[in-house]
Write a structure and sequence with these properties.
Elements lengths: L26 H15 L2 H4 L4 E3 L10 E3 H11 L15 H5 L23 H10 L20 H17 L12 H15 L3 H14 L10 H9 L6 E5 L6 E2 L31 E5 L2 H10 L9 H4 L14 H9 L1 H5 L4 E7 L14 E7 L4 H4 L6 E6 L9 H17 L2 E5 L4 E5 L1 E8 L1 H8 L19 E3 L4 E3 L38 H8 L8 H4 L36 E3 L1 H16 L10 H10 L22 H14 L14 E2 L4 E2 L4 H15 L6 H8 L3
Parallel strand pairs: 6-11, 11-14
Antiparallel strand pairs: 1-2, 3-4, 3-5, 5-8, 6-7, 7-8, 9-10, 12-13, 15-16
Helix pairs in contact: 5-6, 7-9, 19-22, 22-23
Length: about 700
């Protein structure tokens, strides 16, 4: 390895325990051990654990938590573990150990090229953040190599020094300060991700940079070299083979199987002259979440912010963050031991399907994303804190087999809840045991059914009302309708409960009450009892054809969700959330298509008018004896539609980044809106709908749409 890094004399007393001349403990070792014990005993983690800390002897290797006196005896009798030059398990930072701020150290190397003095370089700081907790310093010198490259600790240190060299060495002689091989590689990979560049395009850019930069420059020569350098900085991921029918994953105890246990589908594609290695039919990617959570505490930019949820003071009656919600506080009351450590992480899970190749191709890709809610609102939803955890390659829709892809995540979440993982908090200079909990999921309504196990279509699709639904069938529209099903949720004595005219014909809701709210324990022990087969792992991902008796009539359970394996899942009152933006877009599309009488999209049809005549007392909407339907007050005429579209196209302007250019969504020829994204629909409903139709619609209709009184 290149560079002027000389760590030969860095705390060399740790490995000079015996004086060769006298055969006794050397004076520098005795002095150094006293220095170590003083440092370790001064740390908050030691003081909060009655003088206990990790034993760094050659046998315990920082894996046992022992009293200070016992650690002292172990060190004298067995010596320090190899390569423990930086006391990272005892609260020491890299820059504290190697920098000038550690005034007590008298054994530092004389070189000024060590890590601590280079933290002003953001790329060196990035490397330090990535390896802060678990780098072990080898005594590398120029040209030295690792004695045992198979050893994970040795390999980890080599990655660190390779990256550090890439961050410190200038790109070419005389270049601007801070321009290094690592900085250029980072920019190249960032552009590849931002602009979806192909690998061939990156190869071409790298060739161009080498040609135009001065001779002897350190620029990487291809996408492969660039990715290889950046991979040392990245977090681990695993590829797991999947049954082609999504029945099972070949993971852990099932990793050696060559065919599916449930459908006997082969795991590997047939070999031929061009394909001599084993290639699976399907696979998924899993990115462990624990490493990413630990990284948040290793970086100075995020470590302190991860405690924000416990340190902020919310105004009474206001909710500016999930930690202000009743469900968050209820969970903490149920598990006070978990709540005592503010650095424990609260997670939310979301998933949805999309087609990466456009609507013309039938390919369903389902990513699973986790986000930590510890961060403040300004950071919580930033893309860099939305952690992609699972990615299945499709092309088939996973349907009920989504649980199969969630198995590695559930296993890791159970470990993070029960035992946790060791982590280092750079903001408090402490090692601690990091635990995590999954509070809830967030999805649209179809994905809700895949995650919860309750089918979200049919008469019993409402997961709140369940079998106590008031839904009924529309004979003309041939659809299930939930109109006037929820007046019973109004407070008792509410005037709308008495109304017999504006809801179902001749019906009031004076004596109707909402269904009982079920706890997680009640749902699991009472409602899920008898679901056959109970778990996806017992029947395969697509083996839920045999339903519990009464399916579709008295219940809608099609499986026992894998989330019930989490020990705390029964303690949660709010397990699944609906993504408001998805629902809001559906409402907006239906409202605007009906207002503007879009052919094939409007909900105001002859069939709906016939059903209105059967169930509602609204004479002005009924179809007459000639089959003619009167013009409704909630539909815009030709001039009104043109006026609305022109207003949006010409008169509506939003600040940059607030919303898309809505003018591009106006189709003047077909008199409709098209191509609006979920956020555009949200902005339209929140900012425009309250006033934009005030002069175009009947006053009562406008008041109903705008939500004003």
């Amino acid at each position: 390895m290149g560079g002027n890094y000389n760590y030969t004399n860095f705390r060399d007393w740790m490995y000079k325990r015996i004086d060769e001349e006298t055969g006794n403990f050397s004076e520098e070792f005795i002095s150094g051990v006293e220095q170590f014990m003083t440092f370790a005993n001064s740390q908050p983690l030691t003081q909060s654990n009655n003088g206990k800390f990790f034993c760094p002897c050659s046998v315990c290797k920082n894996e046992k938590f022992l009293p200070g006196q016992k650690n002292w005896k172990h060190i004298y009798s067995k010596g320090f573990m190899l390569d423990y030059y930086v006391w990272y398990k005892h609260g020491e930072e890299l820059d504290m150990a190697l920098g000038t701020s550690y005034a007590d150290s008298t054994h530092l190397s004389g070189s000024e090229d060590h890590i601590g003095n280079a933290v002003e370089d953001r790329y060196v700081e990035m490397v330090n953040d990535a390896f802060r907790e678990n780098v072990n310093f080898d005594n590398y010198q120029h040209g030295d190599s690792c004695q045992n490259p198979v050893d994970p600790e040795c390999n980890h240190s080599k990655k660190f020094y390779d990256l550090l060299e890439g961050a410190k060495n200038p790109l070419y002689d005389g270049c601007r300060e801070g321009h290094s091989q690592l900085s250029l590689a980072s920019r190249i990979m960032q552009n590849k991700a931002d602009y979806n560049l192909s690998e061939k395009c990156v190869d071409s850019v790298c060739d161009m940079l080498i040609d135009y930069l001065p001779a002897g420059n350190q620029s990487t020569g291809s996408h492969y070299e660039t990715e290889k350098l950046m991979r040392n900085l990245g977090l681990p991921y695993h590829t797991i083979d999947v049954c082609v029918n999504n029945c099972m994953i070949f993971w852990k105890e099932d990793e050696k199987w060559d065919k599916c246990q449930f459908c006997d589908a082969p795991r590997w594609k047939p070999r031929n002259e061009r394909r001599r290695t084993k290639v699976p039919y399907s696979r998924m990617w899993y990115l462990p979440i624990a490493d990413r959570l630990k990284r948040l505490y290793q970086s100075k930019k995020t470590a302190a912010a991860m405690r924000w949820h416990a340190e902020h003071q919310a105004k009474e009656g206001e909710m500016s963050h999930p930690s202000d919600a009743a469900e968050w506080k209820y969970f903490q009351d149920q598990h006070p031991g978990f709540a005592e450590e503010p650095r424990n992480v609260y997670l939310g899970l979301c998933t949805d399907g999309f087609n990466p190749f456009g609507m013309s191709s039938n390919h369903s890709l389902w990513p699973v994303i986790l986000t930590p809610y510890n961060l403040p609102p300004g950071m919580c939803m930033n893309p860099e804190y939305l952690f992609l955890t699972i990615l299945n390659s499709g092309p088939n829709h996973p349907r009920a087999s989504l649980d199969i892809f969630l198995k590695p995540l559930i296993a890791e979440l159970k470990e993070l809840w029960s035992t946790g993982v060791g982590a280092y908090d750079v903001s408090l200079n402490q090692n601690f045991n990091l635990k995590a909990v999954l509070l809830w999921t967030i999805s649209d309504f179809p994905a809700y059914g895949m995650l919860s196990g309750w089918t979200t279509h049919g008469r019993l699709s409402c997961p709140i009302c369940m079998e106590d639904t008031k839904a009924f069938y529309l004979p003309n529209g041939r659809k299930t309708c939930w109109f006037d099903c929820h007046r019973r949720f109004l407070p008792r004595g509410h005037p709308l409960r008495k109304n017999k005219k504006d809801f179902l014909k001749g019906k009031h809701a004076m004596n109707e009450f909402p269904p009982e709210s079920l706890s997680g324990e009640q749902v699991y022990s009472e409602r899920l009892k008898g679901v056959n087969p109970p778990k996806t792992s017992e029947c395969g991902g697509n083996g839920h054809d045999k339903k519990k008796p009464g399916y579709g009539k008295t219940h809608n359970w099609h499986k026992e969700s894998i989330f019930w394996e989490l020990p705390y899942w029964r303690d949660l009152n709010l397990r699944h959330n609906l993504d408001v933006m998805h629902i809001e877009k559906n409402f907006f599309d239906n409202i605007m298509n009906t207002l503007m009488s879009v052919k094939g999209k409007s909900k105001d049809t002859i069939k709906s008018r016939l059903d209105i005549k059967l169930f509602c007392d609204r004479q002005h909407l009924h179809v007459d004896s000639d089959g003619q339907a009167p013009f409704p007050p909630y539909t815009l005429d030709e001039n009104a539609r043109k006026s609305l579209l022109e207003c949006v196209k010409v008169g509506v302007k939003f600040p940059d980044g607030y919303a898309s250019d809505l003018a591009n969504c106006v189709d003047m020829e077909k008199r409709k809106f098209s191509g609006m994204k979920s956020h555009d629909c949200h902005v339209f409903m929140e900012r425009l709908l309250p006033f934009i139709c005030a002069e175009l619609l009947d006053e009562n209709v406008h008041l109903a749409l705008s939500g004003t009184n």
